[in-house]
Amino acid sequence: MAIPFVHEDSVTYRTATEVSPLVRRVMADNPSNFTYHGTGTYIVGRGEVAVIDAGPAIPAHVEAILEATQDETISHQLITHTHSDHSPAARLLKQATGAQTWAFGPHGSGRCESAAVVEEGGDHDFRPDHEVRHGDVIEGAGWTVECIFTPGHTSNHMCYALREEQTLFSGDHVMGWSSTVVSPPDGDMAAYMRSLDLLLARDDRLYRPTHGPAITDPRTHVTELIAHRQGREAQIMACLADGISTIPEMVEVMYATIDRALHPAARSSVLAHIVHMVETGRVACDGAPGERSVYRLS
Known about the structure:
By secondary structure, the protein is an alpha/beta fold. Helix content is about 25%, strand content about 20%. The chain contains 6 helices and 14 strands.
């Protein structure tokens, strides 16, 4: 499970950094255990541009995006998903510029269950001006983006592939600095694994996640992410075989070397795996799977 993590030693906040001929990045000053150095908002194109993941509703960050594009027109806002560090600033940018939004849909819209929208950290106020689906193409002045639907981290997660540079803006679906949190009910491990398989079939040269640096060897990275998830499921099976039958007990074993402040997220991730394993008949429990359920091998 040796994921080839890539890290950044430092970043510059509130200033646009050119990362390729067509792409600039503006970093939001919202570092945390889950956002790494912060949210990276991408500006695609020149003159008439698209903004990808406007970010959190931090006025200084919005001002930085506006300053970076002061002699340009923001023609599109593309949102990968509706967590509070990705989409809320889109409303502020729209108020300032009139730039409309493109996304899969509101928070939880990729699932049928109404309970899926009840999630801490979700931006429940976001409604895109334009809903997009897998394979849709969005065109701007000198740039072309294909929509790649990748549910799993959230049910409405959409990646965007910049054809001119063979670059995938991977949101939180694939990050270089960390594995992705998949947290039920909106997060779905089976969907996440299918979405990873989908990316393996593509020929993207580079990934630009919303958090952390670019991933320069996407195929190797995704292959190791898949192996990492399969390894986690093997650990769960081993725990059950040893009589460790609850998620909190499993996390104590599986994440023994990880900062305990991250254990709540780890419990959500293990639950996502177990829901998938129950659905595929490898694990059983009485009633619906939950963090307090008692599990056994099928």
